[in-house]
Write a structure and sequence with these properties.
Blueprint (H helix, E strand, L loop, with lengths): L3 H4 L7 E4 L8 E5 L7 E2 L2 E2 L2 E7 L2 E7 L4 E5 L9
Antiparallel strand pairs: 1-2, 1-7, 2-5, 3-4, 5-6
């Protein structure tokens, strides 16, 4: 059985979007758990995501459970 918290946190480098927004911005997870000491606008231990608009990096910190994975992380263990 998997831990509920792990289910609510997408893996590192996965592509995600906000739940309930099927046409929303697709973002990349750069850090799935920032840590309890990190507080971004009231979000502790959030999920750090980035995306680009006209070449400019944008970011947001989400709470666990607010994102849905649209593409998993690259398989770095895949044999060539």
């Amino acid at each position: 059985m998997t831990n509920k918290i792990e289910e609510d946190r997408p893996p590192l480098d996965s592509r995600v979007r906000a739940k309930g927004d099927p046409n929303g911005q697709i973002m990349t997870v750069l850090n799935p758990a920032l840590g309890e000491q990190h507080d971004w606008e009231g979000v502790r231990n959030g999920i750090y995501c980035v995306w680009y608009v006209n070449g400019e990096e944008r970011f947001e910190v989400y709470r666990p459970g607010q994102l849905v994975v649209v593409e998993g992380p690259p398989d770095t263990h895949k044999q060539q």
